[in-house]
Amino acid sequence: MISVNITKRLDTSEGSLNACFELTIRDGEFLTLFGPSGAGKTTLMRMIAGLEQPESGIIEVDGEVWFDSTKKINLPPQKRSVGFVFQDYALFPTMSVRENLLFAAETAEQRRSVDELIELVELSQLSERLPSTLSGGQKQRVALARALVRHPKILLLDEPLSALDPAMRQKLQDELSLLHKRLGITTLLVSHDISETVKLSDRMASIELGTIIRVGNPLEFFSPHTLSTKLQLIGEVLKIEEDFPISVVTLLVGSSVVRTVLSNEEAKVLCVGKHAIISTKAFNPIVMPVE
Amino acid sequence: MEAEFINTMLLTFKLASITTVILLVIAIPLASFLVFSRMRFKSIIETIVSMPLVLPPSVLGFYLLLAFSPASTIGSFLTEHGIRLAFSFEGLVIGSVLFSLPFMVHPIQSALSQVPRSIFEAAYTLGKTKWETMIRVILPSIRHGLISGIVLAFAHTVGEFGVILMIGGNIPGETRVASIAIYDEVESLNYALAHQYAITLFVVTFAILLLVYTLNKKSLGDIR
């Protein structure tokens, strides 16, 4: 179990603020830090990894103290058992895929496990290639495999899929989910993508302006009004066109764009860029496979 | 004549090689400091490193000569310990190191500043020390900067004239390098020998630069 209770001064675009994070991560769970940019998600993750230092507080992992401001304990990142996957992959450019993983290995057993990991992320064919010759998705798989070589106590994923196209993103989300189920490694993900959060996480912590607002089940979080509806979707409002006496609202649901007609009154409470729930009660939705 | 020519050329390249090796050792930590330090007086150090780019070589040579002279504090201290730097090969090495410093530091500094911060952090989270990270990850990935620095510092030392003339003079076998010899031979209207020195410098430096840029291009192509 990992418990975090720290404060940190954050410099945001709206001035600096005192962030305060209190969070418990259970063994083997997949927890997502969800929130807008600049809320402090990445900073929290970097403090767990030891890449940034909190102002005060405690970080404890399986009974081992990684940071304690009162006892002046601050383990360097080298001494913390973490696997960190960076947004820009951070692969070592002069090393092949295999060498990148071997570089991380410390024991003979870890060195032997390298080929297994390469196979697990389906990169056996590319193991001798340099990172520059790989696609974004392949690079991210290497970064993930590299982070797993040392069997870390916690896997930290800092928006690992944000630079990928939607199709590759979905594929890697599936793989990540499978990998997590298979290895059971405690995982912390930073994301501001709803579908990613719902799909991957056991629990999520919603962060805004340096505070954890709520921790809970992602489905309950995103659809709090679990009504007796037949169909309920969450989308982002893209456009509201007022066209008397009605309004045409365009929403992005997953990767599809949906247009729907609302009364002006109903449309008034919506905001472009914010999320909205679309639900229907009266009819059975028609679901068909897409070729 | 022939023996003196070979001697002078050997001395020239010996000076350039020793200077380059010393510079390489100094420049890597110095460039890292300039890239990563958040010290307030960093820009002063940055300025001092860059000074030789704009300062007339004779200015640096003049002050070094004053410092090396037994009449000065540094010079008298050195003389007491049996070290003579003025008009000696060792003095030339010191002068050349100072004068070629920016040519080694700048390429390394610019290559280092282009390495994403996350590359360092990735190595740290994989349990690697700063030293291991530098040797195994960072230096290989900035090798084009290192090669440019080596070539520029070497070529610049071979071509250096002002500082050497001021602090080294023209002692055959000790401080008489090719650039001084050219000047000396022209002064004594010995154009044939001056030409021999000049064309040798021209061809050798051209060949070195060509070789290095070809190799550099190839290795960069591998990474990108």
Characterization of the model:
- The complex is a heterodimer of chains A (291) and B (224).
- Chain A is α/β, with parallel strands linked by helices and 291 residues long.
- In chain A, 27% of the residues lie in helices and 35% in strands.
- Chain A has 2 domains: 2-222, P-loop containing nucleotide triphosphate hydrolases (Rossmann fold); 231-280, OB fold (Dihydrolipoamide Acetyltransferase, E2P) (Beta Barrel).
- The termini of chain A are far apart.
- Chain B has a single domain (2-177), classed as MetI-like (MetI-like fold, Orthogonal Bundle).
- Chain B is built from 11 helices and no strands.
- Chain B has helices at 2-36, 42-54, 57-68, 73-80, 89-113, 117-125, 130-141, 143-159, 162-168, 178-187, 191-223.
- Classes of the chains: A alpha/beta (291), B mainly alpha (224).
- The interface between A and B is medium-sized, with 30 and 20 residues.
A few lines on this structure:
Chain A has 291 residues and is an alpha/beta fold. Chain A has helices spanning 41-49, 97-104, 108-120, 136-148, 166-183, 194-200, 218-222, 264-268, and strands at 2-12, 15-25, 30-34, 56-61, 64-68, 73-74, 82-85, 154-158, 186-191, 203-208, 211-216, 231-243, 246-253, 256-263, 275-280. Chain B has helices at residues 2-36, 42-54, 57-68, 73-80, 89-113, 117-125, 130-141, 143-159, 162-168, 178-187, 191-223.
* First-to-last CA distance of chain A: 44 Å
Helix content of chain B: over 70%
For the record, the CATH class of the largest domain in chain A is Alpha Beta
Oligomer, anyone? Answer: heterodimer
Number of helices of chain A: 8
Structural domains of chain A: how many = 2
Q: Uncertain spans of chain B, ≥5 residues at pLDDT below 50?
A: none
Strand content of chain B: under 5%
Tell me which CATH architecture of chain B applies here: Orthogonal Bundle
The assigned structural class of chain A equals: alpha/beta
